Amino acid sequence: MALVDIFLTQLAREDAMLVSVHSTRGSVPREKGAWMAVFAKNFTGTVGGGHLEFEALTSARKRLRGEGGEALVRFALGPALGQCCGGEVTLNFELVTAADAQSLVRRLSPQQLPVALFGGGHVGHALVSVLANLPLNVTWIDSRDEVFPEGLPSNVSGEHSDPVHSAVAALVPDSRVLIMSFSHAEDLEVVAACLLRQREKGDLPYVGLIGSKTKWATFKRRLEARGFSEQELAHVTCPIGVPGIVGKEPEVIAVAVAAQLLQTWPAQSA
User: Fold this and answer.
1) What is the pLDDT of residues 36-88, one digit of tens each?
2) pLDDT in tens, 123-169
3) Fewer beta carbons within 10 Å, N or C terminal of the chain?
4) What does the buried/exposed string (b/e) look like for 84-101 if buried means 16 or more CB atoms within 10 Å of the residue's CB?
5) Helices in the chain by DSSP H: which ranges?
6) CA–CA separation, 91 and 140 (whole Å)
7) Where in the chain is the domain with CATH 3.40.50.720?
8) CATH homologous superfamily for 113-262?
């Protein structure tokens, strides 16, 4: 269940104090817009942990008890707060009720970046489990309809496509593409389709291909023969995953690939 859904489920039963990062300066633990919902006995979300969060929780619960306080409170993350980040965070305290649920969904639901995952093998299954916990909208594509398990995460949709590369044309703009089908021939066709789309529209910021340097060298020769330039081929990341992680288990690869996806995240304004 998404964090916002957990918050709203409890909000239907009791009021809460919504604490959000209003602004920041310097080194801080969370970005503008980060939030936590504070109830009388528990809370959901985080504004950064440590003494900052402890003080925010204490202050929020005082407000819930009707003791009042300013809406905006500045916290210097220095020795007085028991933190050494050195920056400054201004938190906003806002009482919310069940009547605010609809507006809170619009305000607090994270941006869902589109990801297209080609391949329902062992790594694909492991990767879906990791991506299910991230603010992504994942389209999981395979030429074999039977590979998708029942009960997919809420942010993952399975799509049967045969031939599999025909799905590239319909991808949501700004999709990050991960290619790891059961067949090198399928992988090659998906890469080629992505490069053609990138040539025409330039709207696939990341195209990652699973495999070794040897596999990519072979693919490069074949793609060059189809007329793709060195500059176009440089848009493909292969091998995929952050460097320095040597494990070959599907779960290990999945974490490395997810971390690399996070590196493509749009920067958030402070």
Assistant:
1) 999 999 999 999 888 899 999 999 999 999 998 899 999 988 776 666 667 89
2) 999 999 999 988 899 999 999 988 999 999 888 999 999 999 999 99
3) N
4) ebebbbebebeebeeebe
5) 3-11, 50-64, 101-108, 122-131, 184-201, 213-225, 230-233, 250-262
6) 38
7) 113-262
8) NAD(P)-binding Rossmann-like Domain (3.40.50.720)
